[in-house]
């Protein structure tokens, strides 16, 4: 009886190990399939978009959109994307970090706070078109900001705000309680503890959330279509710097704009093959912009973590 039970146990172990091997092989195949697809798509993008980017006759980075593919460029979309991202960053980051700190450090634990927390978590997964409709109703129509860079940036700020709040709370929560108790032990106030210890130590985690949100915002098209992004634009926004006092102008916030995803959509929708190559080049530029943002975040996160000593 014992021999039969031992044999059955060994067979069960062998069967389970076989399933482990099968599952590991399936996981490896799935990963390799995904990587192969990504490499193929990225290689095709480089193959199609490299030529117009390096062509001296094309002037890809300094030309405005044109009805002729040989004269079209991404200057307006590049500047528009940068301007919208600046507004998004300036609006979403202070609000998101402040809201996350308040919910984690100051807010009381009651049903109202729980309701806010649940809604913030749910908003992080709401489709972007919903935020576009909200931006159209609030910023474009209610506040009469028009189809401007300001309304686009604030709409995208609403889109990434839940992500920044959630990651800020997670980063603040990861700080050991002993840091706070030590600060209180030497007579520091709540604000001194938060501003001088909790916030600096949690900045690497907060930066991760900011970059994830910005990477999502720079590739969004649906909300910007709703709030009035222009697909074909042949001029740049006003300069934020002016020669006369007060030397800073905010007129550029009211200007119409286009962004890289909109420019790509416009080119892809045209039947000529030359415009498709331009769209591939614009896609490469967008990928490089996203990689640069992620690279900057990784560098800052590394420097901040290196400076933390506790």
Automatic annotation (TrEMBL):
InterPro entries: MetI-like (IPR000515), MetI-like_sf (IPR035906), Phosphate_PstA (IPR005672). GO terms for biological process: phosphate ion transmembrane transport. GO terms for molecular function: phosphate transmembrane transporter activity. Coiled coil: none annotated. It is a multi-pass membrane protein. GO terms for cellular component: plasma membrane. The chain crosses the membrane at residues 21-47, 74-103, 115-139, 145-166, 206-236, 275-300. It is found in: Cell inner membrane; Cell membrane. Gene3D superfamilies: MetI-like. Keywords: Cell membrane, Membrane, Transmembrane, Transmembrane helix, Transport. CDD domains: TM_PBP2. It comes from the Bacteria. The keyword Transferase does not apply. Belongs to the binding-protein-dependent transport system permease family. CysTW subfamily. NCBIfam families: 3a0107s02c. This is Phosphate transport system permease protein PstA.
């Amino acid at each position: 009886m014992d021999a039969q039970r031992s044999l059955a146990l060994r067979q069960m172990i062998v069967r389970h190990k076989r399933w482990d091997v099968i599952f590991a092989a399936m996981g490896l195949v799935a990963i390799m399939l995904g990587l192969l697809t990504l490499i193929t798509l990225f290689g095709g993008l480089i193959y199609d978009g490299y030529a117009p980017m390096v062509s001296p006759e094309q002037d890809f980075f300094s030309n405005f959109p044109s009805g002729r593919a040989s004269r079209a460029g991404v200057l307006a979309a590049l500047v528009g994307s940068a301007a919208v991202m600046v507004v998004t960053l300036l609006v979403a980051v202070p609000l998101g970090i402040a809201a996350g700190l308040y919910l984690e450090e100051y807010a009381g634990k009651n049903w109202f706070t729980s309701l806010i927390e649940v809604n913030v978590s749910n908003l992080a997964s709401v489709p972007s078109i919903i935020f576009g409709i909200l931006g159209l109703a609030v910023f474009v129509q209610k506040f009469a900001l028009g189809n401007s860079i300001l309304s686009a940036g604030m709409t995208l700020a609403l889109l990434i705000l839940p992500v920044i709040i959630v990651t800020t709370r997670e980063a603040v929560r990861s700080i050991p309680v002993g840091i706070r108790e030590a600060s209180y032990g030497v007579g520091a106030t709540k604000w001194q503890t938060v501003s001088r210890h909790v916030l600096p130590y949690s900045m690497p985690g907060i930066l991760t959330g900011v970059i994830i949100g910005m990477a999502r915002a720079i590739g969004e098209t649906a909300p910007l279509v709703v709030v009035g992004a222009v697909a074909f634009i042949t001029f740049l926004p006003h300069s934020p710097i002016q020669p006369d006092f007060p030397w800073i102008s905010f007129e550029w916030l009211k200007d119409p704009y286009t962004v890289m995803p909109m420019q790509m959509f416009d080119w892809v929708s045209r039947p000529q093959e030359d415009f498709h190559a331009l769209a591939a080049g614009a896609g490469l530029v967008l990928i490089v912009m996203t990689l640069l943002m992620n690279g900057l975040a990784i560098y800052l996160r590394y420097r901040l973590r290196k400076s933390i000593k506790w």
